[in-house]
Amino acid sequence: MNKTDSTYEERQEWRQRCILSNDSFMMGLPKIELHVHIEGTMSADLRWRLSVRNGISLTAGSDKTPLSSLEEVREAYKHIRGRIGAAAADAKTNMTFYEAYYGGFDLLQTEGDYYDLAMGYFERASQMQVRYCEPFFDPQGHTRRGIPSDVMMRGFKRAQDEAESRLKARTMIKSQWIMCILRDLSPESAMAQYEAMLLYKSMVVGIGLDSDEFQQPPSLFQAVFKRARADGFKLTTHCDFNQKNTHEHILQVAKSLGGNGAERIDHGMNAADHPELMQIIREKGIGMTICPCAYIRHTSEYEVFPRIRKLFDAGIQVTIASDDSAYMEDNWIFHNLYLVREKCEFTNGDLISLQRNAVSICWTDRETKIAILDELATFEKNGYSS
Ligand code: ADE
Ligand code: ZN
């Protein structure tokens, strides 16, 4: 750990302060979420419920320490630390990020399980005034376990439809899915999954790329991205913070993925160190989804917040998002926004601009965009922009 890294306790103290502040601007701000992995929203409570329901026992760490109660699962969630793809502080007894993330996949068996996962997220998002979201899902992580696509997609669809109608009374929550390709599997597997997913085309707006980036550049998946672009999908790709060859990966995504570059980049924060990349991203109007709570779990805040500020000040269409909230110290879009306001010294007006950026780079219809922009304008007019 660098001496400038925050400790878990410091981050928790800060998080408590943010929750207890009851900040009416932050709570009322209409929000758009463009970077959330649905599988990364599995709370400790849902993990426990699914394990009981499906008769699957839970463990943590390479020692396979049994988790035998809800309390133990909650405690285990507090010890998921470090960079995505790296070992936990003590990987013998603690879960690594990927152990927590892919271990959660194994618990999802029935349509009802997928419904519960997605509905849990939509409920939570609605409480945070999220009006529209584009959650990622990783179908290869489910179909490779023998789960039929139909089981997964029916569960997601039921939750999505219900969220839109049932939660509408409180807030409008619309959504469209982004199907992510697992970059640690082969390009052939990606293409096969893509073709299978065409049956559900009406639910899916975009194609993304996630999982372990090490030695897996976006260009490996050019064939499937070109095909997806030709079929009318929007494109995005993870370029994780401080990854090896990150500038090369960002350049591929910005300039050539799908033929002439993707519409968005997920993370991609190291672009801030590279004026030429910043210029390409700005000139092409590429959106960037930035998830600060994910980075400060393993990186000094001095490495994180000045870069976000720099991208924003350069006029790049940055938006703030949450990534894998359940496995990232329970930080959701609300906490991420709260954090950047304090640490990047953003005004409330800047936070409204960040939401306008999200409207601009999201992939919903014109009518929904106008409705959210109108709501943001009213919110601002009512004195919430100072
Ligand atoms: N899978 C789930 N979350 C991810 C992330 N932030 N980066 C890469 N792969 C992921
Ligand atoms: Zn992500």
From TrEMBL:
Answer yes or no on keyword Metal-binding.
Answer: yes
A molecular function GO annotation: metal ion binding
Q: Which InterPro entries match?
A: A_deaminase_dom, Ado/ade_deaminase, Metal_Hydrolase
User: Which cofactor(s) does the record list?
Assistant: Zn(2+)
Q: Which GO terms describe its biological process?
A: adenine catabolic process; hypoxanthine salvage
Gene3D superfamilies, alphabetized: Metal-dependent hydrolases
The answer to keyword Cell membrane applying to this record is no
Among the entry's GO cellular component annotations, what is one? cytosol
Keywords in alphabetical order = Hydrolase, Metal-binding
Q: Which Pfam families match?
A: A_deaminase (PF00962)
- Source superkingdom: Eukaryota
NCBIfam families, per database record: aden_deam
According to UniProt, the name of this protein is Adenosine deaminase domain-containing protein
- What is the organism field in this record? Hymenoscyphus albidus
